[in-house]
Specification:
Layout (H helix, E strand, L loop, with lengths): L4 E4 L3 H12 L8 E4 L3 H10 L4 E3 L3 H4 L3 E4 L6 H8 L8 E4 L6 H8 L4 E6 L9 E7 L5 H12 L2 E5 L5 H28 L4 H22 L3 H8 L5 H11 L2 H20 L1
The structure holds NADP nicotinamide-adenine-dinucleotide phosphate.
Length: about 270
């Protein structure tokens, strides 16, 4: 088996994995074959990473030893039908689509295949991604590790049972969108109070990065860290009360549940 990684689809998520992987230098450009109908994307990637192979014909990536399908969930079935004859039995097929179950994808191949269902996120672009992996029954431990190595090169990974994949999708696949909304809103508030826009984004981003790292590294419960910022009768607790009144936490809890349910609908 060769050492190649094929990508079908090089949009937001596929592109982030490709760029994170090749910028990090853990894989050589010549190991990577990328297929996408958009010539401009392929040209951009070739310029950034000379030596990669690109094509608009998906069959070119289908022979890779690890094949990452990075198209929208609605396009999977058509792409699998198009390439399934060219995909070798020993190829490890990696899906990154929200909601699509191993059973469904396996059914589209029509025969037993080595499939790893994953859920990455766009911070992979800067090697700060978070990816969950769930191997199908045909995947051996070493094969799962080979896929995990790709995603470890662009961030952290966790192996999960399939019944948790939809909830995980909200928690880490979709949540960057909500964090970006939070950052935008923080900056809007600061701009309203006179801080220049660019500076507001810079400061808000660092505040969020620092807070997230503090949770991850201190091991303290987030509520304890929140309490430590809130002096009695102080300014922060004033804003905590405002956020509670506006339903801040319950809105997020509901958003996660709605997102999980929607992912479940995609797989149904
Ligand atoms: N975006 C995220 O944050 C995120 C996070 C986790 C997982 N995902 C998953 O990642 C997958 C891709 O999402 P995305 O946001 O990257 O979508 P996207 O930006 O639209 O990228 C998909 C790419 O695939 C191309 N494509 C369409 N039909 C194709 C075909 N038949 N063969 C080959 N390439 C084809 C698209 O080209 P055209 O634009 O010309 O159609 C586009 O360049 C989805 O399954 C999604 O659930 C996304």
């Amino acid at each position: 088996m060769n050492n190649t990684i094929g990508f079908i689809g090089a949009g937001n998520m596929g592109g982030a994995i490709i760029k994170g992987l090749l910028s990090g230098g853990t894989r050589s450009s010549s190991d990577v074959i990328i297929c996408d109908p958009r010539e401009n994307i392929l040209q951009e990637l070739t310029k950034a990473f000379p030596g990669i192979q690109t094509d608009t014909d998906n069959a070119k990536a289908a022979g890779a030893s690890i094949l990452i399908l990075a198209v929208k969930p609605q396009v999977y079935q058509a792409v699998i039908q198009e390439i399934r004859e060219q995909v070798k039995p020993e190829t490890i097929v990696v899906t990154i689509a929200a909601g699509l179950t191993l059973k469904k994808v396996s059914g589209w191949f029509g025969e037993k295949r080595k499939i790893v269902r994953t859920m990455p996120n766009t911070p992979a672009l800067i090697s700060e991604g978070m990816t969950a992996l769930c191997p199908g029954p045909e995947v051996e431990e070493g094969e799962l590790r080979a896929v995990q190595d790709i995603f470890n090169a662009v961030g952290k990974t966790v192996v999960l049972p399939e019944h948790l994949m939809d909830a995980y999708t909200s928690l880490a696949g979709s949540s960057p969108a909500w964090v970006f909304m939070f950052l935008e809103a923080l900056a809007d508030g600061a701009v309203k109070d006179g801080i220049p826009r660019a500076l507001a984004y810079e400061i808000a981003s660092q505040a969020v990065i620092g807070s997230a790292r503090l949770v991850a590294q201190s091991g303290k419960h987030p509520a304890v860290l929140k309490d430590e910022v809130c002096s009695p009768g102080g300014i922060t607790i004033e804003a905590v009360a405002t956020l509670e009144e506006a339903g801040f936490r319950s809105a997020i809890i509901r958003a996660v549940s709605d997102c999980t349910a929607k992912a479940g609908e995609l797989g149904a």
